[in-house]
């Protein structure tokens, strides 16, 4: 036999093991260090074959099974005779998806695909990311969470309720995968801008982890979505006969924090020091408390606070090419002082402090926040929540956003309020009268909660606004010029950020890593993008962007001494690209 053919057909388990990104756990099946032309074994608890193989989403290839695979794995008669390669399957499914007019129907169809053919699901998502991102994530995932009880068919993660108090470790062991690298967990209390959706918030961890794989390259089997069910205060859900969660009011105080403490200890005991726990859509008061409490003992990350902050900072750094000057030269005004607003503000202050060698307290003076009661000023300090107090500056009280803009004269207004249509015509016009290129960031999700639309921002500023939003908006033509709105979506940051932590075997998250991620993202914006008014690169390049972010984050982890995967790879970008999960079908022996 030809030596080349012998090498090509060599099974991966017969080869010497190679180093891969496994968070410290050996890849015993060899699946993830196999190249696409090497043979792998479709393991479950036994070798999967026949009807069971077609029902195993990790290994099912549908009509793509070859003639030989159909013989070897007892598939004859279980499939039609045609052989359809993955590319043709993808084309057929995309045509089918595009026939749906209702986005929620597309969401349901995609989730069903993930449950029957994992690799084809990720192939679709990676190759059509700009089209499908609004389906698997915001804004459609918000509607999916609202109706999760009605569309629920099969569990896609772990549900840990108060019924399991004292037994959380046992529940974690029920999950079939042992090599978990990333957990996304929510308690459902503040889902997007939609409020308390209780147990139905599971759509968020499921969607986020799909993006960890598609955009960041983390293996699907290493991802675990979890919902902590401590009840809900949503009366409509409690009365809904199809509600899937506990029918009781939310646990609070000591009962709540004791339950979360048991969860965090069980996670570390079961999965080790290097598993990343990403908090998602917790209410403000709990989000800050959990991040502060476990940030020094676990590898934790809050996407609403830290991820949003990093992506917005990247947009601000990139926008300096259009606005001129440095961050320290400009004043920033936030409309909304919750976990997102204060998290972004703090990271901006840290970036200004690092660049200008000024104390963070001094850097904060460039940043102003407005909450539901008006501008946050010293006169209100005694009544403010702890996370708002650092932003109370000396100024006369101002009760509304328009008067605040006129008084503060910011270069940028950043909306994190969750209240739609609050950047009014008067507010945008005031910004345009103060700045040659006003920066308008309407970040609240979903679309209905956006502070203004792209068309409104461009029209009311006479085409001079630099605009970014949390949810996607279509391009706008104004005065014969095409304006392409930027989307300040967390998806730019968290997949690459998390992958960088896994890649380095990091044991803690540090603010310097967030700054490193922001710098990497801003560095991907080209002159061509600036010419179209964009301050973020297009999503079509997201895997390349994620690789650069992962490399920057990993480099910072090594620099700070919190990386455990040694020695450090010489070229972290190439290493990141080589370690990314790819969804192409494998050949079975």
TrEMBL record:
Residues 305-558 form the Malic enzyme NAD-binding domain. SMART domains: malic, Malic_M. It holds the Pfam family Malic_M. Gene3D superfamilies: Malic enzyme, N-terminal domain (3.40.50.10380), NAD(P)-binding Rossmann-like Domain (3.40.50.720). The keyword 4Fe-4S does not apply. The keyword Oxidoreductase applies. Keywords: Metal-binding, Oxidoreductase. Its cofactor is Mg(2+); Mn(2+). Residues 114-295 form the Malic enzyme N-terminal domain. Belongs to the malic enzymes family. PANTHER family: MALIC ENZYME, MALIC ENZYME-RELATED. This is Malic enzyme. It comes from Solanum pennellii (Tomato).
């Amino acid at each position: 036999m030809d030596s080349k053919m012998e090498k090509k057909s060599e099974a991966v388990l017969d080869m010497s093991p190679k180093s891969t990104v496994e968070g410290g756990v050996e890849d015993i099946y060899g699946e993830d260090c196999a190249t696409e032309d090497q043979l792998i074994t479709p393991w479950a608890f036994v070798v999967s074959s026949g009807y069971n193989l077609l029902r195993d989403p990790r290994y099912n290839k549908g009509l793509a099974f070859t003639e030989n695979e159909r013989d070897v794995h007892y598939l004859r008669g279980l499939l039609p005779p045609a052989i359809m390669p993955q590319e043709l399957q993808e084309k057929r499914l995309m045509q089918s998806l595009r026939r749906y007019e209702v986005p929620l129907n597309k969401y349901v169809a995609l989730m069903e695909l993930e449950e029957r053919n994992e690799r084809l699901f990720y192939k679709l998502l990676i190759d059509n990311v700009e089209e499908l991102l609004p389906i698997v994530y915001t804004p459609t995932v918000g509607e999916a969470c609202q109706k999760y009880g009605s569309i629920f068919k099969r569990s896609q993660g772990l549900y840990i309720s108060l019924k399991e108090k004292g037994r959380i470790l046992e529940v974690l062991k029920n999950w079939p995968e042992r090599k978990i690298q990333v957990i996304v967990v929510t308690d459902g209390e503040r889902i997007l801008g939609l409020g308390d959706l209780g147990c139905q918030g599971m759509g968020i961890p499921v969607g986020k982890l799909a993006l960890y794989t598609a955009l960041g390259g983390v293996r699907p089997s290493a991802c675990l979505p979890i919902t902590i069910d401590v009840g809900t205060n949503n009366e409509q859900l409690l009365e809904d006969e199809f509600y899937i969660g506990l029918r009781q009011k939310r646990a609070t105080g000591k009962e709540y924090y004791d339950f979360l403490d048991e969860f965090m200890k069980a996670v570390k005991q079961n999965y080790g020091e290097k598993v990343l726990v990403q908090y998602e859509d917790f209410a403000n008061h709990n989000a800050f408390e959990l991040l502060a409490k476990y940030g020094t003992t676990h590898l934790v990350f809050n996407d609403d606070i830290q991820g949003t902050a990093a992506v917005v900072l990247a947009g601000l750094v990139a926008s300096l090419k259009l606005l001129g000057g440095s961050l320290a030269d400009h004043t920033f005004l936030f409309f909304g002082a919750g976990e997102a607003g204060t998290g972004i503000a703090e990271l901006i202050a840290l970036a200004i402090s690092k660049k200008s060698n000024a104390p963070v307290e001094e850097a904060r003076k460039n940043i102003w926040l407005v909450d539901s009661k008006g501008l946050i000023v010293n006169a209100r300090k005694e009544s403010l929540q702890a996370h708002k107090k650092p932003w109370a500056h000396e100024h006369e009280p101002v009760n509304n956003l328009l008067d605040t803009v006129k008084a503060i004269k910011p270069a940028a207004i950043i909306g994190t309020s969750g209240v739609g249509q609050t950047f009014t015509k008067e507010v945008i016009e005031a910004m345009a009268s103060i700045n040659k290129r006003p920066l308008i960031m309407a970040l609240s999700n979903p679309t209905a909660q956006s502070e203004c639309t792209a068309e409104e921002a461009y029209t009311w500023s006479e085409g001079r606004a630099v605009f970014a939003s949390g949810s996607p908006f279509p391009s706008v033509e104004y005065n014969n010029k095409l304006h392409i709105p930027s989307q300040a979506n967390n998806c730019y940051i968290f997949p690459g950020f998390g992958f960088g932590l896994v890649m380095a075997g990091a044991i803690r998250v540090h603010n310097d890593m967030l700054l490193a991620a922001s710098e990497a993202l801003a560095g991907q914006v080209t002159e061509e993008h600036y010419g179209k008014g964009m301050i973020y690169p297009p999503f079509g390049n997201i895997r390349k962007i994620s690789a650069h972010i992962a490399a920057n984050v990993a480099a910072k982890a090594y620099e700070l001494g919190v990386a455990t995967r040694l020695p450090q790879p010489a070229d972290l970008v190439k290493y990141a690209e080589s370690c990314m999960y790819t969804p192409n079908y494998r050949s079975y022996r």
